[in-house]
Amino acid sequence: MALLPPDLVLHGDRLTLRPSVEPDVDALVAVLAEPAVKRWWRENDHDDVRQELHVGLTILLGETVVGWLLVHEEDEPDYPSVAFDIALSERLHGAGYGQEAMRVVLRHCIAAGHHRFTIDPAVDNVRAINSYAAVGFKPVGVLREQERWEDGHWGDGLLMDLLARELIDPDAPPAAEG
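C-alpha cells predicted for N-acetyltransferase domain-containing protein (178 residues):
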C-alpha cells in the first residue's frame, strides 16, 4: 500500500490534505513565493514544484490551497521512517494550522505502520521549531552547513525526530489505564 495513494483525503478540524496534482502548481508556487515562506523555502518555480508533486500533500482551507506538506517515505524494512517538509501561507502562521496539518499526516503515517519521523528546519526558524515541538518533535542535533542559501552562505539545520508514541495529540482518545 502506498503511503500517498491518489485517492487519499485527510481531514483535520479546519484543514483538508490530499495528494498534490498539476492544477495545484500555480497556487503552490504562489504560497512558496510569499515573503515569510520564501525566506525558508527559497525560490521555487513551476518545474521545481512539479518535480515534487508525487511526494506532496496539498493543504486546503475550504477549497483554497494554503500550503504544501512533503512526505518522504523510507520503506526499507530495517530503517523505516518518514521525513517531512511543510510550507504554509503566511496568513495562517501562528494560528496552529501547521500543527494541525502535521498531526493529521502523522496519524495517517502511524496508521500505515510507521513509527519514526523527522523534520529539519533551519536553526534560526524559531517559529517552526516551536510548532514542531508542540506536536512532539524533539531536537536531535545540528546539521552543520546543511543547505546553501540564496546569498551563497551555508546554513545549519536542526534535525528533529518524533516517535509515534511521543505524538502530542489533543484529539487522540485517552490511553487505557492498566
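The two ends are 33 Å apart (CA to CA).
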